[in-house]
Amino acid sequence: MALVCLSAFALVGCKSRASADPAPSVGSTSPEKGPSLLTEKPLNEAVIALREAVGGDVQAIELRIYPTRVVLQAQDPKRPSNVDQYIYKDGKVGKAVPVKLQGTGKLEDNLFPLSEVKLKRIPPLAGRALSELRLENAHVGFVSVKRDLPRSMGIRLRVKVQSPRKDAYWDTDVDGNPIASDAGADAAP
User: Fold this and answer.
1) In whole angstroms, what is the distance from residue 8 CA to residue 62 CA?
2) Cα separations in angstroms, 99 against 19, 94, 118, 153, 168
3) Torsions phi, psi of 90, nearest 5?
4) Where are the domains of the chain?
5) What is the distance between the terminal CA atoms of the chain, rounded to a whole angstrom?
6) Which of 52, 58, 148, 171 is the most exposed place for a label (fewest CB within 10 A)?
7) What's the angle, vertex CA 48, arms to CA 35 and CA 189, rounded to 5?
8) d(Cα 95, Cα 19) in Å, to the nearest integer?
């Protein structure tokens, strides 16, 4: 059973549906600073900084990678019943924000070791999602990494592809193998 995680900023899912997603809009005119975090070296630097901010072996509920920021919801190693949200942006990690847990699921069932995620596979998967989904004038909005609850305890990578006419999702397991998805075009993550 999945939990719902609420932060001070938005509902950032531990469940299959989330709202008030802080993803950048397709029509955004603000220029990106630096290289996309959906590329290997910047992503690796971001995750190293996030791991240092959390401290200890990171037990994550979700890692969400956008072109300009990375959002991590992780168990507080000093208070294991708590979850905090960290945002890496512009080369630094912001202050931890408490996450409100709701639902009947167990926190332990939703957690996964961040060390199990092969970060170098994420950038190629993002590119592959664009070619697999074949949406006109599309770009990757974000990549989400979390347990595939309630379907399985496996870790799922979900790539959200956005275009002016349609949004769609492409799901893989932690090794990059496509998995059947119940989230077709325009479904909430």
Assistant:
1) 16
2) 15, 14, 25, 22, 27
3) 55, 40
4) 4-13+31-173
5) 16
6) 52
7) 70
8) 23
Give SS3 for 116.
Answer: helix
Residue 177 identity (one-letter amino acid):
N
**The pair of three-digit structure tokens given for residue 85, joined into one six-digit string:** 């949200």
Distance separating alpha carbons of residues 14 and 85, to the nearest angstrom = 12
The residue type of 148 is D
Rounded distance between C-alpha atoms, residue 177 and residue 174, angstroms: 7
The DSSP secondary-structure symbol of 75 reads E
Sorted by sequence, the CB contacts under 8 Å of residue 82 that are 6+ apart come out as: 75, 76, 98, 99
Residue 5 near residue 62, CB atoms below 8 Å: yes
Give which of 88, 157, 162 is closest to 123, Cα–Cα.
157
Q: Which residue has the tokens 């699921």?
A: 105
The pTM of the full predicted model, rounded to 2 decimals, is 0.80
User: How far apart (Å, rounded) are the C-alpha atoms in residues 55 and 66?
Assistant: 22
Query: Are 161 and 139 within 8 A, CB to CB?
Result: yes
CA–CA gap between residue 108 and residue 151 (Å, rounded): 16
Block means of pLDDT (10 residues each) for the chain, 189 residues, are 45 32 32 78 96 94 98 96 97 96 91 93 92 94 94 94 95 89 50
